[in-house]
Amino acid sequence: MRLVPARVRRIDEGIARYMRGREVVWPPPELADLDANPEPPSLSSGEVTTAEVTTVLRGGAAVTPQGIGDVLRAVQPSGWGNPAASLAEYTVDDVPDAAQEVFLPDGGMSTIPDGTSAAPC
More exposed terminus of the chain, fewer Cβ within 10 Å: N or C? Predict the structure, then answer.
């Protein structure tokens, strides 16, 4: 499995070449300024697949702010800031009162069933 198909990667590279050819700083530095995690881990497609399977099996218990950020970063062009991933990763720190209603203290997301209470088919 490829997270980002070769055609999409070529389009991203073409946009970057086009913008740089017109002396536009690309990717925009504003993206990096909005990303509080300047050197995030890079998940392989196998690691993203593992995260997806774990989420299907465990449900909300497997969904964490860092996990959401990791998956969002895995599909972005290399070298770009990712404000959306940063927001996910730092939700608990940025809005602790609201985040506690969504992300449980022992890990996992309260708004998605936990996978263990599902009735067998």
Answer: C
CA distances from 74 to 54, 67, 82, 117 (A): 17, 11, 10, 30
Asked if 70 contacts 43 with a C-beta cutoff of 8 angstroms, the reply is yes
Q: What angle do CA 43, 47, 48 make, to 5 degrees?
A: 80
Torsion, Cα 109 69 66 34, to 10 degrees, reads -120
CA–CA distance, 84 with 94 (Å, rounded to integer)? 13
Query: Three-state SS across the chain?
Result: CCCCCHHHHHHHHHHHHHHHHCCCCCCCHHHHHCCCCCCCCCCCHHHHHHHHHHHHHHHHHHCCHHHHHHHHHHCCCCCCCCHHHHHHHCHHHHCHHHHHHHECCCCCECCCCCCCCCCCC
What's the whole-model pTM score?
0.74
pLDDT digits (tens, 9 = 90+) for 42-75: 788 888 888 888 888 888 888 888 888 888 888 8
